[in-house]
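As agreed, record minuted below.
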Amino acid sequence: MDLGTRKRHNLLELHQAIGLGESYLTAKPPELQLELTAKCNLSCRSCGRTHWGERRKPSELDPLLLPFLPPFLRLARGLTLGGYGEPTLSPLLLEVLSLGHTYACTTTLITNGTRLDRAFAADLAAVGLDRLVLSIDAVSDQLMHFLRGVPAATIWQGLEHARHIGCGLEVQTVAWAENLSELAELVDRAGKLGVEKVQVLLPKIYAQSLRASSPFLHRDRAEEAFAAARERAAVHDLDLRLPPLEQGSELRCRQPFEVLVLRHDGMVHACCSALFDGDRRALVAGSLRTTPLAELWNAEPLQRYRTAFHGRGPWPDVCLGCAFRLHTLEAYCRFLDQEDH
């Protein structure tokens, strides 16, 4: 049986198990995410590490953990590289992308774009990168420097080079009160550069000083900015994903059914959000250094979440106020009790 058929059978088995309300899954996760490094070369307003300080040592993923991944890569559809650090700083980047390509995974790189030059783009093309997601929050240098500590021109130049990779291009931007006025121009510029998708995210609030900048508190301005962005997206036939600004909806997060996240330190999580939410907010499966990945996939915290998802038990405490489950300002502010820890 070829890899494509195996992956399709695995996904079908997973969907059947979810439909039957099962919490212990024999199918493997269709998505894997790796945090290759805890190092970063920026200081972004939207990142918890900027406000909490260096919560982790700037260490790298141990290459000795990579041989544990192939049994899961054989059945996974996607392999995403991204996390608390900047993956292009990792010496393992090209090796891991090549590994994903070997096992027919759709490979995605999430980057701040600062290290993307023509030579790096050629390296990424050589290992068959399928999708590049670039984080950029502004068009003007002044605003980008305020939000991410780097001139906007640096990031947009990186996107210019990324066009030569020949992969799908996506832009992610965090919407603040301060950059709403540039959103439409950002979408227009991305469209002109061949970007297929722009995802607009609401900010997680890691410090009290940021709360007043949430678009939830500037709804009228945000709606106007979103409407203008939609017009620009239509011109370029660009897929624009905008968050709802109405609060109160409860969301159906399926991550503990669909993804395993390997941190740089060998810890395995059941949710990509846990990478950014601080150790006290993590849905932790365990350590790959001591426990096989197959056992971690059905670790007790994951089964407890799946049981709650099916309506047969309480949610894990770490998930109660998560913005992946509750679309409210309070959910996006749930990190404030960690501000001084």
In short: The first helix runs from residue 3 to 19. The chain has a mean pLDDT of 93. Residues 14 and 26 are 8 Å apart (CA to CA). The longest strand covers residues 168-174.
